[in-house]
Amino acid sequence: MRILHYLNQFFAGKGAEEAANLPFDIIEGPVGPGIPLNNLLGDSFNIEYTMTAGDNWASENITEFENNIREQIKELKPDLIIAGPAFNAGRYGITSGLVCEISNSMGIKSVTSMFSENPGVLSYRKNVLILNSSEDVKGMKDALELLSNLSKKLLNNETLGPAHEEGYFPRFIRREGNRYASASIRAGDMLIKRIKEEKWETELTLEDVSQISPAPPITNIKSANLALITSGGLVPKGNPEKQVRANSGKWWKYSIEGIKTLEASEWESIHRGFFVGITNENPNYVLPLDVLRNFESQGIISDIHNNAISVSGVGTHVSDSKEIGKDMAKYLKSQNIDCAILVAT
Amino acid sequence: MITAIFSLALTTGASRVIKGARIEHVCGDPALGEEKDFNYRKNIVQMALDALSTEVTEPTLFEPKVL
């Protein structure tokens, strides 16, 4: 049985962020984590080709990327496509989800694996089989085992068990089956467990569907108090306050009072999630202060807040992001800020 | 929000999303040369200001001109 494996540039051994712009490529046989995965799959199933693309290239050239995947599927006629595991790598999770979605649309079974907070889960969980993985490569062994087990089931046309048994994210698909007793008895049992403070499990999970209502528009931008925020990991050169490069639980503010432009000699990005070389030659790419001061001198805007807000937005837990956002908003409100521009890398 | 990965921003619910150039240089493009790069950055920031002044009811994408 022919399997195609999709890996990003890093796991395909082509390099880290500096290789993120590499275009689509296809390699014969398994590569990187595909090698132990192939061993786990056993003799009847074989990773015959490994598809790979740089995370930036795939994200920025989506149509070309999609066409490449479709072409390979049409030509090679695989029995299964495996993507990842992507752990918490956001761009990689999204491209892995996309590869599987394309595969499914062409009638080829597929499976991928990533961490629960990977944005790929949010985007693809309904249509794609996504196994739950650890946050980082420490869980590679488990991730590959789950991938191999599920792959064998898919290739053998076995019916998959429910999500919590097989280890994938629920796809909201309902199937007929029998519960151990009628609903009234099950509800009673659940209540007794809760009263006794024993471990209990709900049958119905309510998803957090909280949508944020858009803020009303600014009526007069000329007189508005505007704050500048970046998740590009902007710091004064040398990172004096030792802002962390990833998994941030806090945010920082730096004075931009009287500063007309962000000079490469004074500022840098410490973001761990993208190649910062270009931004470090011109930090205005990640906080466009030069243009905003220009607009200020022309009267287009009149009030830029004295402190720029910065955080290194990579590997940030969703729960931390929410708290950081709320905290930033609290600070901005205390400073009578009307609106903010946030540059996200 | 100004970002190059705008579809992700829209999916996760950001209300006003301005399309940035690329992940490595969101607000501009060094390949354009200094003057055109600065102009591009002006277009992006102006679009951001326009977006702030626009009523939106759901995640909305704003696309600035490059040149």
Whole-number count of domains of chain B: 1
Task: Tally the helices of chain A.
Answer: 11
Give the rounded overall mean pLDDT of chain A: 93
Global structural class of chain A: alpha/beta
Q: How would you name the oligomeric state of the polypeptide chains in this document?
A: heterodimer
Number of helices of chain B: 2
CATH superfamily of the largest domain in chain A: Response regulator
Explain what you see.
The complex is a heterodimer of chains A (345) and B (67). Helices cover 34% and strands 18% of the residues of chain A. By secondary structure, chain A is an alpha/beta fold. Chain A folds into two domains: 2-166, Response regulator (Rossmann fold, 3-Layer(aba) Sandwich), CATH 3.40.50; 221-343, no CATH class. In chain A, α5 (119-124) links the parallel β5 (109-115) and β6 (130-133). By secondary structure, chain B is α/β, with parallel strands linked by helices. Chain B has one domain. Chain B contains two helices and three strands; from the N terminus they run βαβαβ. Chain B has helices spanning 6-11, 34-52, and strands spanning 2-3, 16-19, 60-62. A three-stranded parallel β-sheet of chain B has the order 1-2-3. In chain B, α1 links the parallel β1 and β2 (16-19). Chain B is flat and about 35 Å long. The A-B interface holds A 20, 56, 59-60, 62, 90-91, 94, 119, 122-123, 211-212, 214-219, 221, 224, 232, 274-279, 281-282, 284-288, 290-292, 294-295, 300-301, 339, 341-345 and B 1-5, 7-9, 11-13, 15-16, 20, 22-28, 30, 38, 41-42, 44-46, 48-49, 52-58, 60. β13 (339-344) of chain A pairs parallel with β1 of chain B.
